[in-house]
Design brief:
Shape: globular
Number of helices: 7
Strand order of the largest sheet: 2-1-3-4-11-10-9-6-7
Pfam family, one: GATase
Number of domains: 1
Keywords: Glutamine amidotransferase
CATH superfamily: Class I glutamine amidotransferase (GATase) domain
Largest sheet: 9 strands, mixed
CATH class: Alpha Beta
Structural class: alpha/beta
Helix content: 25-40%
CATH architecture: 3-Layer(aba) Sandwich
Number of strands: 11
Protein name: Glutamine amidotransferase
């Protein structure tokens, strides 16, 4: 099988390793079936997208909606690299899944607006499929409403022009959309389980996602939570696009 490619931006090595492990586990992938480029460490190399089954862009400590003057030189370079890659991905309709930071990145690329109006606190949220989502080849096998892990300071205000809204929630109107036939994005995390989310919250406890003094209580709540259907988005994406 041609590998999938994970584009990552997490500076913390432990979280970066856990992210890879989560995408491998929840995607049902084997050794060598997920390659990774850590964009926070080096510029995006020239890619032959035909060498991959698909591309996934994971979450990030970066915020797309931050003023340009507040972004580091690394973040600005990462965003420029991703924008250039998405030019090709969208033009060729290459299989792509952007999660959390990935939905904002793809959304802005397609002319959408990301701001702080529809942020969601850390935890689970009921995600509801739209009519288009119920008919979609990746999302269509899921329950009409399912819980998913979220935690983000920014979100799309509305579906980008020309995109198809696949899923929504009460606090965040754009939980998933599709561009063309094969380019997807989710606001929720399709790779996380409860323990993985607790670990990630521990690393980012001082980054404004929640009150650090409430971490222990938050971790206890997360460990009691489940979101078994959200990872099926990633697994169904892998099953649909895996190719020799």
């Amino acid at each position: 099988m041609r590998p999938f490619l994970l584009l990552a931006t997490r500076e913390d090595d432990a979280v970066a390793a856990s992210e890879v492990a989560a995408f491998v586990r929840e995607g049902g992938l084997g050794p060598g079936e997920l390659e990774r480029v850590r964009l926070e460490r080096r510029p995006l190399p020239r890619l032959d997208l035909d060498a991959y089954s698909g591309v996934v862009l994971g979450g990030s400590p970066y915020c797309t909606s931050d003023p340009e003057t507040a972004k580091s030189a690394v973040q600005r370079r990462v965003e420029a690299d991703l924008s250039a890659l998405l030019d090709e991905v969208v033009a060729r309709d290459v299989p792509f899944l952007g999660a959390c930071y990935g939905i904002g990145t793809l959304g802005v690329h397609r002319g959408g607006t990301v701001d702080r109006e529809h942020a969601e606190p850390v935890g689970t949220v009921p995600v509801e499929l739209t009519g288009a989502g119920r008919q979609d080849p990746v999302f269509g096998g899921l329950p009409d409403v399912f819980d998913a892990y979220v935690g983000h300071k920014e979100a799309l205000r509305a579906t980008p022009p020309g995109a198809v809204l696949l899923a929504t929630s009460a606090p965040c109107p754009v939980q998933a959309f599709r561009v063309g036939r094969n380019v997807y994005a989710t606001q929720f995390h399709p790779e996380l389980d409860a323990e993985g989310f607790v670990e990630r919250c521990g690393v980012y406890r001082d980054e404004g996602y929640f009150d650090p003094a409430e971490f222990d209580a938050l971790a206890a709540r997360l460990r009691l939570s489940t979101a078994p259907f959200a990872p099926q988005v990633w697994r169904r994406f892998v099953a649909r696009y895996a190719r020799d």
